[in-house]
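All the exercises in this workshop are built on plain-text protein records. Instead of coordinates, the fold is spelled out as a row of discrete tokens. Once this layout is familiar, the rest of the handout is easier to follow. The record below serves as our worked example for the rest of this section.
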Amino acid sequence: MVPAVLLVLACCLGALQVVGQQVRLTDAAADAARSLSRGDSVDRAAGLVRQAVRGASMTPERRGEFVCVNLSVPSSFGAFAAFGLTLRAGSCALGGGL
């Protein structure tokens, strides 16, 4: 019974790690969108993303009056990464950049 409890506990802790990574990714997308909307360069916005989430790919785009950023990154937790879990987040900000 102890191995089963340890396995469930490890899965729960791994899920918490993935949720934390998703929150960081969402925050990084919002920061990058705001940075681009203020007129900062794409390199500067990408630097903000790299500081928050290692290995994330960024796709900036313009949607009318909004500047949007989409991020994606493979899961950093081994068990979820083995299944190919990719986390995605996006955010838009009103502004004149990009």
In short: Residues 2-37 form the longest helix (36 residues). Residues 2-94 form one domain. The chain has a mean pLDDT of 90.
